[in-house]
Each structure stands twice: as structure tokens, then as C-alpha cells.
Fold this protein.
Amino acid sequence: MDDLLADFVAETREMLEAIGGELVAWEAEPGDSARLDSIFRFVHTVKGNCGFFDFPRLEKLSHAAEDALAECRAGRREPDQQLVSAVLAIIDRIGEMTDAIEAGVDFSADGDQALIGALAVGAADVAMEPLPSGSVVAAEGEAGAEELSEKGAKVALQRTIRLPVSLLDEVMKGVSDMVLARNDLARRLREAGEQPAIDGPFERLSAILADVRTAITRMRMQRLEYLFGSLPRLVRDLSAELGKQVMVDFEGGDVELDREMIEMVRDPLTHIIRNAIDHGIEAPADRLKSGKREIGLLRFSARQSGNRISLVITDDGRGVPGDRLAAKAVAAGIVSEAEAARMTERQKLLFMFEPGLSTAEAVSQVSGRGVGMDVVRANIEKVGGTIDVTSKAGEGTSFHLQLPLTLSIIAALTVEVEGQLYAIPRSYVEEVAFANVQDIEFARAGERQLMTFRGRRVPCVALADVFGIADPRRIAWGSKTLVVMRLASDEVFALGVDRVHDHEDVVVKPIAPAIMDTRLYAGTTLLDDGRPILLLDIPSIAAQRGLNSEVRKRVVTVDSDDTHSTTGARAPVMLFLGLDGRKRAIRLETVRRIDTIQREAIDIEGGRAQAVVGADIFSLAGHESGPLPEGRCRLLRLSDGDSQIAYIVREVVDAGAITQDVVSADDPALEGVTLIDGELVPIVEVHRLFAAQPRPARRDAAPVCRLPADSEWARTILEPLVRAAGYTLTTELHLEADVAIIMDEGEPAPSGPARATIRLSADPEVSGGAIYRYDREAVLGALREASAGHSASGSAE
Amino acid sequence: MNQLLLMCLIAGRRAAIPAVRVQSVIEIEAVTPIPGAPDFIVGLTALRSQALTVIDCRVSLGFPASDRVVGSRAAVIEHEGHRYALVVDEAFDVVEALSQPVDLPGGFGEGWLHAARGMVETETGPALLVDVEQLVRGPRPASAAA
């Protein structure tokens, strides 16, 4: 509560200063009603604030003064000199107590009653001449006074000033300009070669600049407490109005958020709270009936993860009935009944954010006023955030808000298309897939390009096509990098780009209306080298391509089992065609990934069959069932946790689930057979495959690479590369890794045990064995070298 | 009478931009193209920490596009909170207008029709006073111009 308290102190002090003159004037002329009013307002405000902070004594004092003054204002009492003195004494006392609050010391209660008593009509001579402030402190006795003066010095250091945000913005802009100028200078210095006399001071300048930039950014930040602070009152009022009892609980109030962002989420949050109290939390009697505590609970928890804040609002009410939402959606013609029937609970819940669907049967005074959750979502998205909902019947509802730290700085992925860079807001990016590395199958449905990724069909759009600079029919999908996007409405599509470059925090500026009219861009930003690039407007692009409405149906119909739901005894499987062309299923948990290799990479000799994937050799299975295909071969990489086996298949069909009983088959190679979508499918017995391995594979386990746990860059940019190089990843420090990658910046992070270490540097001018982090070849080379070392040590064992 | 004008060459003709609107004259160093944007918008360029929308005045006036935007001079102006770089063939000095803009019988010819506010006399001879807003708005659709 420190920030709030500081604000309270600052505000009270400001008011005290402001009414200083009034007090004097009022003293001279107690009948002046204008002065009376302003003094009344002061004590009234103090009283209000105190109630909020739980300062009962301060509240009592100001309350007493307020009462007395109210009498005067109502004309029931004539302000006289005695009253003026008493009020002034109280105001002085308020000032002193404020000081004590700031210093964090107790303030003796002595004299409070006397001060209040002096307000009474005809209290006569309580001998309260305008109290010199010192005298009260003296009356405090040794404890208070001593401590107060001791803390005095500390207090002075914490003084705050109020500044207009625009001034901060101006400073921030200036610093941004300085950073760009620095980058420019850095480039020139690099070109000019090494100049120790200049490089040293320049480095220092850079470091200082970075610090200043951070400090300026922090200036705009405010603790969430600020927002939370106003909520208990809102909750209290609403629950009183609705005859419910609600308790609030906050967690993570120390998380900081851009001031403007806080203002932007205030309304959506208020709306969510209204809904929760109105529709979520039941009346006390109903709660008791369903075995809950009489008092409902509304929890707010915030936490920062990277550049985003996640805010979860949870109530323990009756939950949102997904079926009712679905029924409404059907009634509103958004989906057909059959489609709704196939939807998962989660998909049904998302109808909540559809315009014009309100579950409230009866419109109450509090919510259901026509401002729906669709508006809430729109507002959250406007500031670059996302909103999601989960609900369990009878147990409550949670809203998950993801917010960027600031309005103007967003986390973005830079991608390249036809030689130009563009930025994509990271909040939409679910995954980056490489068509040439990962197993992605492309298919066409009419004019629509689809890809099968993680067992689901995802519509693809090439960014070059969106821009109208490439013929959609002639796009080389196989060489594209696919950025899988998830829209807030939970619809997924993939954006094909030439390359993914980097993860950056970018400062977004508005763009000219004529560019806005293209409905492709949301803003512009400058790269570190000062080049402007455009920020893509992903929802709008999706809407233009019709990807945000019809797709939902498509995803639902193609892929009714993408959710990892555990309802019933569903066991996910991967369906494939064996080399003999027969359809089989294999339990999905055992399939680690799908590889595509050339026929030449498979070596079969007698009873030994092996496949080379990347730099690793795997034992091969599944080849007995038929002739090897020519050219490309598909392998399912199976893992039992320790070792891995490559299982060759003709074709990966789909993901499915075992929902029926598995009937034992009279074949040791099969776990049994079952009906999947009405079709009899044999299930491969994985255990036998691993058991059949003569030696549990000296090279089977993929080498382990440890990435820095706290680096966003490592997670988003480096991870796919390392993975593609055949490593499994860890961030655990205590595990022995084959190779550890550490980022060469700031103080060295603890790296944990590793056989080899690769140091990456963000600076292209690297030194001391580090590798520039975008030197792809060098990074891959180092990884290969490390994995060769892994295999050598593996074979020695 | 003494309005200051930035003298420049647009589509090979002498033109004048009110100097009060011009924040600076820059040389376009690099342009980031904007796929999907109308033709008269060449792209974005950076001026210090700000991105400017680069507008090819030739296209705005209905002439064929400039051959080379990079290396050209451009007048930086602000319009409704956004900053634009108006690419001109050449930019000269700032001079004083010696007359009010006047219409010529018969107009100024196609293209200039909607963007020229009239002819002004200057020390260096007559020039067409262009309307910055019209340049920023882009060329008129052919039907509207007819």
C-alpha cells in the first residue's frame, strides 16, 4: 500500500497548503460561507480518504470537524471564534498525523478527545487558541517527538512531485531520439575501426543511456494497487445493491503497469466485476444451499511475465453455463445447432464475447445494460491485450486478461517478406513453424491453403499475398516460415512469411490515415537502426481474409479433438498409414515429433535398421510391413522418455482419440484394435517396439541443451533453432546438460553443469569466443560440434 | 502579401509551398515501402525518431511517378497530427510572395487543377501555389476530376 499511502500523504499535504490561506481568512471572519465551504471540503475529503486507509483516529477527528462545520453550513450553528479555534486545532493535528503516517511512526492519541470536545457548542474555554503545531508535538511526550524528528531527514528524501504525463512523454521521446543517435554513432564508430580513446567513453555513454531509458519507462509505471484500491468500494456498493455478500482478495498489487494502461483497463474491469457479482455470485441463501460459504469471493491476481501482465479475476459463483451460451448463439444464428453440439465447453464459453449475446435472463439494474462482454474484449484488444475465460459449473468463473506493460511499447516479432521487415504483435503469435524443418503438410481446399500442424488443419495466408505482391497460387509454401496466430476469439491461422527475424519491444506510433485505410497496418515503429517498419493489424487482416468467422466452424468440424480434454477415457492417438498402406494408430504421448528424411538416410542390413535424422542415428521400426518409399520418408519419432525410435510410415493421416474399448488382437505387434470414427483401427504396441531394441540405443537420446531461463529472446528465437538442431531443451540449472547456451550480457548468469558452453552475444562485434546471436551458421556449427562431443562421450560409455 | 514560400519543382514545373507549413527540407535516404497503400504514398522514411509518410507529389497531382525517390528532396509538413515528406523534383530557396495567388483564365492544366491554389509572383518569377492538404489527400479519382 506504500504508493497509495504516499499519494494520500501528498494529497493531504497539498490540500493543507492550499487551504492555509483560507484558514487565516476564515479566522478573521468566521461567517464567510465561501471559506467555510472550502474548509468543510477539506475535512470531508480527509475523512473519506481515512476511511479507506483505516486511520480511525484521523477519521474521527475529521469527522468531528465535518459535523461541526456541517451544522454551520446548514445554518443551525453560528461559527464563532471558539469553533474556529477548535477546527484549526484539528486541522493542525491532521497535518501532524499525516507527517507521522509518512514517517511510519505512531502518533500518540493524547488530546484527541480534548480536540473533539472543543468543537461542541459552548465548550467554552478549553483553551484552544490556534494551536501552534509545535505544542501538540510537545504534548506527545518523548516517544513521538523524538522519533518524528529523527525520521524527518528520511521523509524529506521521499518527497514527491506531480508532473503532467505529457512532460514525461516528451522526455521519453527525447531519450528515444538519443538512443537512435547513439545507434547511428555506434555504426559510424564501428566503420571507423577500433579507437580505444573513443570506444571507452562511448560504452559508458551507452550504459548510462540504457539506465536513463529504463528509469524513464519506470516513471510512467504505477502499481496495480492503484487500480485495486478503488475496487473494494465498487464491490461493496454493487453487492449491497444486489443483496449479496462479496469479499475481495488481491494478489500482486505491486505489479507495475503503465499509468495510461491502468486507466484503459479500469472500465473493462469494472464491467467484469459487475457481471461477476450480478450473474456469477449467488445470493447468500443459494450459496448456503449449495454448500458454499455465505460470502462470495472475488479474487484479483496479477503477475508480470516478461513484457506482459496477466490479470486473473476469479469468482466462486455458479459459473457460466456454456450450453446456454451455445443455445443463445444458435438462436442468434451465429452457429447451427449441429455445430453447437460439436463444440467444446471452452468454445461455447467464447460465445460470451460475441456481440449481442448476454446470458442474463433478466436485466438487472447493475449489468445487462447493453454493454456486453464484446465491448470489454474490444477494449482490451484495443490496448493490445487479450481476454480469455474459463468456467466450471457450480465452482465459478475466471477471466484471464493479458495486458502489455505499456500502451506504446509492445512486444513484437519482426518478420521478413520480399526483403521488407514487418512487425507482428507477439500477443497473437502462438508458435513459429518452419515448413522445411518441421513436418507440415499442405493441402488445398478450393482456393484456400491449409496446413496440417499438430494434428489440426490450419488455414494459411501468405503475407505476400495479403500485400498483393505475390500470386497466391504460386507461393512456395515449402520454403515459408509459418507464424501460427491465435486470435482472441480462439481462431487459429498461419501467416506465411519468408523469415522470422527477431523478437523486439517496439514503440508504436500512429500512421497516416491513408495508410490506415489499407486496413493492414496498426502503426509504425522504428527499428534499432532507425529504419521505420510497419506493425501489422492482425485482427483486421484476418477479418479481410474471412479468417475470423467461417474458420471457427472449420476448425470445429475438422478438428473436434484438439482440446486436451480428459472427459471420459479419451486417449489421443496419431493415425497413420503404414508402409503396407494400412491404417494404424499409435498413442500420441509416445510420438515426440515427425521427421521427414530422404530414402538415402535409411540403412537396413539384416536385422539392423537405422535412420539418420539430422545428426542423430535412430533405430528404425515399422519398415518390415512394406517396401520403403522412394524419395521422402516420414518418420514418427517415438520416445519412451529415455530413448527414441524412428517409426517409418507412409503417411500421417490425422490425430484422433480412442474413445471405445480396445479389443485385444491376436498379434504381439498390436496393443489391440478399436473403433475410431466408426473405423476398425489397429493400435501399435509401443512397448514391444522399445523392448525389441537389441541395445537401448547409444545414440537415441537427443542431446540436452540448456537455455537461459529468463531470456525472452532465447525462448522465442533461439529455441526453434536449437530444437531443429536435434536438441531437447531444458532451463533447469541442476540438470547436467550436453551444452549450455548463455547470453553474453550484463553479469554472467549461473549456467549450471554442462559439457560444453556456447556464449552468444547481442553485439555483432563479438570477442572472446562468443558468437553473434544472429550468426546462424556459427551457432549451428557450435551446436553440431557439441552434439558430436555428446555422441563421442555416448559411445565411450 | 509577404507570405513566405518554399520554391520547388514538381513534375518539372515551378511550384511554391507555403513556408509556414514546411518544418524542414530533407533528402530522402531510404524508404520503407507500404504494400497495399495507394500509389501516391511511396512509403515511410525516418526523420530522427519519427516515421514520415512519403508522398510523391507527382502522383498526387496525377502525373506519372517520380523515377527515383531515394536521393530526392522532400518538404516535411504536418497535417492532422501526422507528418509527411512531400517529394519534389527539386527544392530551392524560401522567397517572399509578391502577389496574392490568382487564377489564370483557362486554368493551370490537368493535374494541377485541384491542388493549385493559384499563381503567385515571386522575385524568381511566377510559380503555382500548391495546396498541401490536396497533396496529402492524393490524386482525385479520374471521374471526379473530369
Notes: The CA atoms of residues 400 and 631 of chain A lie 48 Å apart. The longest strand of chain A covers residues 296-305. Chain A touches chain B through 28 residues (CB under 8 Å).
